[in-house]
Write the structure tokens for this entry.
Amino acid sequence: MARKILKLIADETAGESYQAHKIELDVETDRVSRIDNRESRLENPKFGETDNLKSYFPLKKFSQTDSQILTYFLDGSRHVYKIDDIAYQQSGFRKMVYPVVAGQVAIGCCRRQMKKIYAEKFFSEVVLTLPDIANANDSNGFFPALTEKINTQCQDSYFNTTISKILPYSTSQTQTKEQKLEDRAIAKIQDHMYQAEQNMVAALVAQNKLNQKNYLVKDGSLEYKIPANILNNKRKFLTFKNNYGYVIGVSKKFNPALWTTGAGTNFKPDPGFIAELPLYHRTPVICFENAELHGDIKFAVWYLRIRDRKHTESPFDGVLKIEKMLVTREEIETGKIDSDLVNYLSAQIINERNPVCYGADNRWANHIYPIFLTETFIKSKCIEAETFLNLF
């Protein structure tokens, strides 16, 4: 199957396959942190909650409750592999070589019911990325037709896995020269994963599963770059916003230098404010918007410490970044979220913290247990790297 897929791609795109060594691209490298960096710098921050909070706020007393409104937990995963190098003739006798990258995208959602966690939804697919010049004539439908041909002619009776989509990445020289071609390919798969996460949230909303008594916790940021076809369509954009009325984003990793303090135009990074956050305290809520990426969506952002600094290696271990879109009319008009809701959600998250470290996981201090279980659920359903590479 391996040689058939790569040879078929080369034949159909007039390229030359080098049958290069296949490798897994590390998901924890700095390359990925650059690609996945959707955090907006909190410049010119606006006060974002109804209470006039100026400093840290204690939450321990709010967490002493058995009631629980965090019901659904969603996480996305993607593993990427360089499976070949392919060359295309340029002007004269010059050849350019481009990576062919394959990705396994998996989205999982778990549900808590009567203090037990159940698998709610799972979605996975295999995608390929090719340089855009593989479609030499820029023909509409070229990559879908190539995908269909691969699945028709290169089926493997043992693995029974199909390619869901081919995602072309840009080879333009006008893009940032520092971004490697591999990074562009990975970014396409990453964006595809984000879209799959949004689709799963939309499916839960369509089934009326999210409400004020059943929130969804999404692992990671909610700062999706909204596609133009949604951003420029009033009805679709309103639907997108309303889908996130009962969703909060909880990030284990974040850039603390993006927190700024000051007045007027004199804003400066203040990561120490987050580093010194006491246990079971939160920061004030900051409200911001980025019209270019998110239209008129406003985000409420705050930080919460769930693990004592004396048990961690870094002053930022044990701190979570929490995001919520402002979606009600009152929230949008005032640009503020109700402080009681912030306190209640924060206290609920404190109750979800991992009691102990599970194995060699350097993120243990920032894990909340249901997300850890959701990650474990996704991993159990994914194809192992060695098996995946044997597909190509």
Summary: The radius of gyration is 23 Å. Residues 181-206 form the longest helix (26 residues). The chain has twelve helices and 16 strands. The mean pLDDT is 86.
